[in-house]
Amino acid sequence: MFARFLKDESGATAIEYGLIAALIAVAIIGGVTALGTNAGTKFNEVAAAMVA
Fold it and tell me: Residues 32, 37, 40, CA angle at the centre, nearest 5°?
């Protein structure tokens, strides 16, 4: 029973998939944050040009 437990890799596979999903989520969050900051800056520039 103990040897079968040591050979079981299903938990390791689940952890690997979890790590990959976390890495993808961090990349998406970083990209959306950067895009949002750039878009906000552009909107402010356009609004300032319209007022001037």
Answer: 120
What does 21-46 look like in DSSP terms, one character per residue?
HHHHHHHHHHHHHHHHHHHHHHHHHH
Q: What is the rounded (10 degree) CA torsion for 37, 41, 43, 47?
A: 150
Q: Which of the residues in the chain have pLDDT under 70?
A: 5-6, 52
pTM of the model as a whole: 0.62
DSSP state of 9: -
pLDDT of residue 1: 79
Q: How many helices (H) and strands (E) does the chain have?
A: 2, 0
